[in-house]
Recover the amino acids of this structure.
């Protein structure tokens, strides 16, 4: 009996979700794009694509201190503002902080 009540509740919740999607005009696909624009950092792969270089070249540039990074756990993130400043300067800048990571 408890199992049947659980299944019924699950069905009602699922139907409510679908009703919300239908009445709100569908799933907002632009939400992901908006979230990406709000990000303050890029992954190494995203940075490599922006710079038009390969992934390995990006990691090598990070190791040399030419691309500034923030280490969060095991992840390396490139601050957008620092990358834009670096590109505006037109030349790589050695960053000793990257070498200690």
């Amino acid at each position: 009996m408890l199992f049947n009540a659980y299944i019924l509740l699950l069905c009602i919740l699922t139907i409510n979700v679908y009703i919300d999607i239908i009445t709100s005009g569908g799933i907002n696909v632009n939400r992901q794009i908006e979230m990406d624009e709000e990000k303050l950092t890029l992954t190494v792969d995203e940075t490599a694509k922006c710079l038009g270089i390969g992934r390995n070249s990006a990691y090598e540039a990070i190791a040399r201190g030419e691309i500034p990074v923030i280490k969060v756990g095991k992840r390396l993130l490139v601050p957008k503002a620092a990358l834009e400043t670096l590109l505006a300067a037109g030349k790589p800048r050695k960053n000793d902080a990257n070498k200690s990571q």
In short: The CA atoms of residues 68 and 78 lie 6 Å apart.
